[in-house]
Amino acid sequence: MTDYRPKITWYERQQRRKSSPFFRLLDRSFRLRLLLAAAIALALLAGINRFEHCNPKNRTENCFSTDFWEIITIGNLESFSIVTAAFLYILEGKQRKKQEHQAAMEVILSHNAAGAVISLHRIDALETLAEAGIWLDGLDLKGTNLEQINLSYGRMRKANLANTDLKNANLSYMDLTQANLSEADLTGANLQGANLTLANLTKANLTDANLTGANLTDTDLTDANLPKS
After folding, report:
1. Among residues 54, 55, 63, 108, which one has the fewest Cβ atoms lying within 10 Å of its Cβ?
2. CA 105 from chain center: how many Å?
3. Which of 1.10.260.40, 3.30.360.10, 3.40.50.300, 2.160.20.80 is the CATH number of 100-229?
4. Mean pLDDT on 186-198
């Protein structure tokens, strides 16, 4: 199980963007993103046009004074549209990510509402959100099968994971403050560096679990099956 964490998560990057008035406006306005994409495309095509006329092998007279707008011709319109669309796709990256995360949360909630115990789609959704740094505080996953899930560095404070199958799960460096893990099966789970402050692990099965560096401050381990030292 890998304990890799990017230097900065998607969620943390978005929090930093909020400090910039420009990025706040950019995130809210599709028209601004479209205008910016068109401007970048125009500048790029203008640069290519200048290079074609002003490179040493094909220099034309007065190449630097050629009309900047001459690139907007019928012949170049298709290229301009394609380049604009490409830059708009890049600028729309945050919106696509937000939709992806919203869809992932809907998968989790819909599977919970349906009472599904085993769901690979739910596991994929949880891993996607955890990797992006999305907080999953208070999420109810009681009695579900999350065997071998990788939620390393995720945050699930006060989550309900009672009776959950977490065998061989990667929960390293997770924030599980006040989480309910009573009677959870954590056999072989990686809890290295996890924050289990005030967590409830009564009757949990921790056989062969890795608790190296875990914060067990006020953790309730009543009747838990602890790993052998």
Report:
1. 55
2. 12
3. 2.160.20.80
4. 97
